[in-house]
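Fig. S4 source data, part A: sequence.
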Amino acid sequence: MAVIKTNSEQRKMLARLMRAEAEGEGELGMLMAGNTMVNRVRSSCLDFKDINTIERMAFQSPGGFEAVQKGYFYQAARERDIRLAERLINGERYHPAEFSLWFFRPEGACPAQWWGQWNSGRYKLHCFYTPSADECPQVYTVY
């Protein structure tokens, strides 16, 4: 069951963004980055109140993704990446990103908080940050 509405072009866009942001983290890292991206589309809270499509999520400004700004995003979607994106669209979640709305790659250790949100964990080089249930209950909705 899809947790967000998409068409084939939007699935490709999500796949390209996942690859651009986390290809160096392997498939699991790409899935975790993608969890954050899907969560931004699903949740109407905090900085993401009007981010209800893949396009709006990918090109959000300010607060968008570095890969879109620096051009890594503009490569073709590979079949493998599209399959990973489809898994997330169909509701798969991966800890520590299952409820995250933010991630970033710090120079050192993950700060306990980032933009007022608590660290939910690290995978390889990326730290993931999750809102509280009071601030953003939609992100915790079970499919």
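Fig. S4 source data, part B ends here. The mean pLDDT is 94.
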